[in-house]
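WARN  no MSA supplied for this record, continuing single-sequence
INFO  ligand: biotin
INFO  echoing inputs
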Amino acid sequence: MPNRQNIATSIQSRLNTKFVGRQLHYYPSLTSTMEAAKKVAGEEVVEGTVVIADEQTSGRGRLGRAWLSPKGSLAMSIILKPSVSSLPQLVMIASLAVVRAIRKVAGLEAQIKWPNDVLIKEKKVCGILIESEVKGDRVNFAIIGIGVNVNIDPSAFAEISPLATSLSHELGKEVSKAELAGALLCELERLYLEAQAGAPIHREWQAHMETLGRWIQVRAGESVERGKAETVTEHGNLILRRADGSLAEIIVGDVTVIKD
Ligand code: BTN
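INFO  complex generated
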């Protein structure tokens, strides 16, 4: 059984990053890496610090949901300090980094369900949660939380089994979590730096977006929009064409496909 130091070292030995993952806190078990990262982020922390746990006992999902994080899944949070104007790009950076890392390490093609679920064959393999603290025009910190179903058997978890998959389930063999975490952190830094330099990363993000061209419903609190998903903006917003032909720009929400 590898010890704490070995796991952190094994991930860090795979990094060719400038700052992402250079500080890495590994825990066998945590309530949530978001909570642990938030505590660290409140102190003087270097950008790119990563918190990883082998399992979470109270993993958090989007829109107040719980996130199942048993051993075998990858749970990590990355602390960044972007400008306010580049905050919206984090969604694209994180989901694209996951797609690229899955392709590189597992050889599987994944798609993105707007805004940031990652799917394989229409089933969810990864969820992403982004939380930030902004004061005026300054971002104190942004935390990207990424949960990947790596080596779990989805059928063992009734609450997710109809809608979820895992890398081992798709491949028929286990995948190295350290290799996946390393590749993910490398891709994430690459995309983050490219986006800061003005690269149009929304184009690659859009190319992986399985939501486009489908009739969908987007729910955000009490508000519901229905229409055909047409495109995404450079800030990652979704453009819907309603049945009456008018356009709606969606910033946040939960997507359900009505028909293809
Ligand atoms: C979602 O799809 O609802 C988002 C799930 C995000 C889960 C990750 S796992 C690592 C980090 N820690 C958490 O408690 N949540 C995020």
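Residues 177-196 form the longest helix (20 residues).
INFO  checksum written, moving to next record
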